[in-house]
Fold this sequence. Notes:
Oligomer: single chain
Number of helices: 5
Amino acid sequence: MKYVQTGEIESGDVIIIRNEGPQGGPGMREMLGVTAAVVGAGHEDDVALLTDGRFSGATRGPMIGHVAPEAAVGGPIGVLEDGDHVTVDIPDRELSVDLSDAELEARQDDWEAPDPVYDTGVLAKFGRDFGSADIGAVTNPGVMQRQSDK
Length: 150
């Protein structure tokens, strides 16, 4: 949000917000505030936002959420760096980063899981027990995974 509010965004930027997924957030926080700020800054059509967080129905523009696997569990979104070239091809439904497989693998090998935000309570349960967004972000991901394999 600070990056957007200080006017640092430019046409063609892809903003990455990570560690907001079911486990990393924990709980998949809503990204509407940031997306509204991007639109309000006049970048509705020329700045993308990529996150493992979630969006409501009010989000508009090239905003991509619910990315899985999320950053907090080692998903590729967690190893993207400033200056990486991310391509968002909406008509072909393709999302890619201009890195070789070897570079991406090396970054993932060096990646370390973030410390949990909460150690006790309900939010600790999210961070510890909830599955990926692509299988429903539920507390019994094994069951959801088996169902999605059918």
